[in-house]
Amino acid sequence: MSHKAAPLNKKFWTPGVLVMVAFMIAGGIAILARFTGGIGYVANLSNARPWGLWVGVDVATGVALAAGGFTTAALAHILGKHFYEPVTRPALLTALLGYTFVVLGLLVDIGRSWAIWKPMFNWNTNSVLFEVAMCVMVYLHVLYIEFIPIVAEQFKDRVNLPGPLSIFNALVNLLLKMADAILDKIMWIFVILGVVLSCMHQSSLGSLMLIAPTKIHPLWYTPILPLLFLTSAFAVGYPMVVFETTIVTSSFNIDSEMEVLSPLTKITTFLLGIYMFLKIGDMLIRGTYVYLFDGTYQTNSFIVEMLIGVIIPWGMLLFEKVRRSRKALFTAATMIVGGVALNRINVFIVAYKPPLSEGGYFPAPGEILVTLGLIATLMFIYRVIVTYLPVLQAPKEVSS
Amino acid sequence: MKINRRNFFKVMGATAVSGSSLAALPSDLTAWESKAPPDPYGCLVDLTRCVGCRKCEEACSQVNGLPAPERANCQCTIFEKKRRPDDKAFTVVNRYFTGKLDNFDKPLPTYAKVQCMHCQDPACVSACIVGALTKDETGSVRYDVSKCIGCRYCMVACPFEIPAYEYHDPITPRVMKCTFCYDRISKDGGVPGCATICPTEAITFGKRADLLRVAHKRLDENPGKYINHVYGEKEAGGTSWLYISSVPFEDVNLPALPDNPSPKLSETIQHSLFSYLWSPIVLFSTLGALMYKSNKSNPENSNGKRGTLEEKNITKGGA
Ligand code: SF4
Ligand code: SF4
């Protein structure tokens, strides 16, 4: 089993990358429109529907799907299952980029983007959002710190800045080495801190909607929302790793890592099982199953979320055969990822129905473009980084 | 990942100390308490008196420097669509036909003014990430634009769907809602604009406790005229604005709400989990112990993550 990550040596500009760039440009234009005409100019948000696609997808879903970072770190570094180390770096990178884009999404969504620093000095400890914001802010820094050794590994002793900057080569190299040496000793603090902060804000993200009981459909509104958010974040971490590893390894044509992914998803059957148990138990105890067959878009969305996003993939993963087959495993993982994403979208958008005001909500083209643009940028940067930094596993036959 | 022994115990020692100081905390620390001001002002709206003249809308926009109300003198077609307060109007009057008939079997309208209720324990205040919204001693729920970041969580939280947003301002949008004419009522003898102008005395301003007494007296003295309920006495933990009516409150878009103050559940969860950061500290210590144990049991692996330079060069060269 090799533990070595290496930069990819692949052609960078492919047709796929060009498509990404097209979305980035379109998203950029929409963002420009938002900062000249206002949120109302590009978005369908209203006084009754203050949160839409940007909060539901860019923020809530983004945070949930970045759960691969802390769940793999907990497994490999804290519980000492070093066998899983090969996936920790790509998962860390996804988390790092994911959270960076959560913040970028927030900057677009909040009305006074330039005031985003104010929560640091004006604390409202009663506010769930305050806690989420603080955790996300600190966690983002922790993620960047955790990433420094990867940069150091690549550039230590070969810092080569372009042109006139090259006089700083020695200095930068020294700093890099120092940071690396110090971090090596104290990295465990950041690893644990990352897991703690994740548990805090993953769950609190669920508490956000508890303050609006009359607006959230009873199928989702439950006092255990924070627990459901936490357990689903645990559950989606490894499927997300499977999902992205499979896409990345097949698009770069490198080793598929099945020998790590199969056992990883065995743990998922357990974690997803807990989430499923809580979710169904909660429905039975509160008696909300009476709404299940109302046939409205809300209840249908709940059924899809549970059936396709949780129950079926959980059943699939029980079979050794599924876990061993690359295709079947990818299918199950994709369903779980989609299920948790849909859950966040459901809680923040679909379940939200203000009883007093008229009119529904569907994201405007401008909103969708911003979101797609941000996702494309994220993928683009991911590609840049894995091309130049040692994140992904080097091809098997070479490193073993 | 390398755990340095001395380092480890230093950090863990610190967490343990802060952790143990928690044991000394009083046990009722996490019990939720209302933060409502003891003797706030309020307004009593008697829907049986309102004739839909919309003078309050006009007074409101004058006092608060807002644009004149939409078709200010119209008392007819303006009512054809239901309006909500927005970033240009802190209060609006709507007309409802609730099935009541007059002596000639013509449907009788009920008019209802709507504005911020100035809740006793407001959801918006609890939600606001920076504390830009505060509940004042006067009862007014005030907004401090200099703190606001525009997250709009207050709008998500408000059970009355009141705060509105300046969605078309790209850089400095504000949250807009009724101020309870704070600048007036905080001075002696000051009365909100709407309450001063109302020709039928449908809006009475005073201390909330007095208004509750007045309201109940009206209900008692006119048996059969009113629904026997003062809206806002208990709703969402009580509001500074109170309503009495002859038609069911739901019919005039005053929602049925639980008596529990809106912030109670989320604040209870937040504080019981995060007071003095006890749960993160416990989690940190537990994970630290686990990590230490697992690192000791297979030390040869703890350094395995890093490839040496040579190994990497081989990898690179071969790829
Ligand atoms: S009505 Fe809404 S905006 Fe007004 S105080 Fe209550 S929660 Fe806040
Ligand atoms: S929009 Fe402003 S006032 Fe409302 S919750 Fe956010 S920061 Fe507070």
UniProtKB/TrEMBL annotation, chain A:
InterPro entries named among the record's database cross-references: FDH_cytochrome_b556_subunit, NrfD-like
GO CC terms, sorted: plasma membrane
Primary location recorded for the protein, binned into one broad class: membrane
Protein name: NrfD family membrane protein
Bilayer topology annotation: Multi-pass membrane protein
Transmembrane segments: 12-33, 53-79, 91-108, 128-152, 186-212, 224-248, 298-319, 328-349, 369-391
Keywords, in A-Z order: Cell membrane, Membrane, Transmembrane, Transmembrane helix
Protein family per UniProt: Belongs to the NrfD family.
Location of this chain's protein in the cell: Cell membrane
Pfam families: NrfD
UniProtKB/TrEMBL annotation, chain B:
A GO MF label: metal ion binding
Matches recorded under SUPFAM superfamilies: 4Fe-4S ferredoxins
PROSITE patterns linked to this entry: 4FE4S_FER_1, 4FE4S_FER_2, TAT
Domain (4Fe-4S ferredoxin-type) ranges: 41-71, 139-168
Region named Disordered: 295-319
Record field: compositional bias (Polar residues): 295-305
Cellular localisation: Cell envelope
Primary subcellular site in the record, as a coarse category: other
Keywords: 4Fe-4S, Iron, Iron-sulfur, Metal-binding, Repeat, Signal
Keyword NADP assigned: no
Pfam family, one: Fer4_11
Basic and acidic residues bias: start-end ranges: 307-319
GO cellular component: cell envelope
Signal peptide: 1-23
Protein name: 4Fe-4S ferredoxin iron-sulfur binding domain protein
Biological source species: Desulfamplus magnetovallimortis
